[in-house]
Amino acid sequence: MTDPRIGLMAEVAIWPLGLQASGAPIQWMAMEQSSNLPEEILEELSVEFGCADWFRTSWAVLEAADLGVASRRKRTFMLASRYRWVDITPPAAPLPVTTMAEALGWDEGERINTRGQRPVDPARGRAKGGNCFPADKPSWCLTGKTYTWVRESDGKRLTSAEAGTLVPFRATYPWQGSRSSQFQQAGDVVCPAVAAYVLAVLHGVTGSHDSATTSPGSTTTTNCGATCTT
Question: Could you tell me how far CA 226 lies from the centroid of its own chain?
Fold first, then answer.
């Protein structure tokens, strides 16, 4: 293990290969990881599935905002199938953009401050590191630190329900734990719209990819093979 990220991927791959070895009727596997994952790791995992007589593996980097989600999130998705051809690729044409303001029912022109008042770079006249973005576009990627975001017009902090809506889950989804924990959960989860797109590929659903997405404020739960829930 020359890189901890190898272990993260290998841990997920052990489950479907172990189920296969025990005789379980598993047919496919889907996993999600950082978009910065080295491609050689994906290639080596593909070899392992091939050696176990899986029919096909495929992977692609998907951007949630391209699937109509009101927040950006770029992740690598890897699929493996035992009996049929699967080939995941980004959508040929992105869905119409859903802005943060649209998803949350805000007026146009709102801006989000992510890190408070920061020193101004005299060369650019802007805060160092960049700490603001317009809500008239998809929001920046959510993380556990998103709980610090405030709306500049009135100083109102983003709520966990609003963060969930940006993913997009329904506003009443029961995030658990402390405020920071709730935001971390929203930041870690696979967006339902993206999960629907990935599962449509796995199950051979054809047609325009907007049929495999969910609108802001909705939620989707899909049973995943023999072992997990997305």
Answer: 22
Q: What angle do CA 226, 215, 130 make, to 5 degrees?
A: 100
Q: How far apart are CA 32 and CA 54, in angstroms?
A: 19
Residue 122's CB: how many other CB atoms inside 10 A? 8
Instruction: Kindly give the interhelix angle for 39-51 and 4-21, rounded to the nearest 10 degrees.
Output: 20
Counting beta carbons within 10 angstroms of the beta carbon of residue 186, is it exposed (0 to 12), middle (13 to 18) or buried (19 or more)?
buried
Q: Give dist(CA 52, CA 14) in Å, integer.
A: 12
Query: For residue 28, what are its two tokens?
Result: 């496919």
Mind listing the pLDDT tens digit of every residue in the chain (230 residues)?
Answer: 677 767 777 888 899 999 999 999 999 999 998 888 888 888 988 999 999 999 999 999 999 999 999 999 999 999 999 999 999 999 888 889 999 999 999 999 999 999 766 556 667 666 555 689 999 999 999 999 999 999 999 999 999 999 999 999 999 999 999 999 999 999 999 999 999 999 999 998 865 444 333 344 433 333 333 223 33
Sequence-separated (6 or more) residues with CB below 8 Å from residue 81: 27, 28, 29, 54, 55, 56, 57, 202
Reported as type and span, the H/E element at residue 3 is: none
CA separation for the pair 129, 144 (Å, rounded): 18
pTM metric for this prediction:
0.80
Instruction: Specify the residue for token string 């809500």.
Output: 135
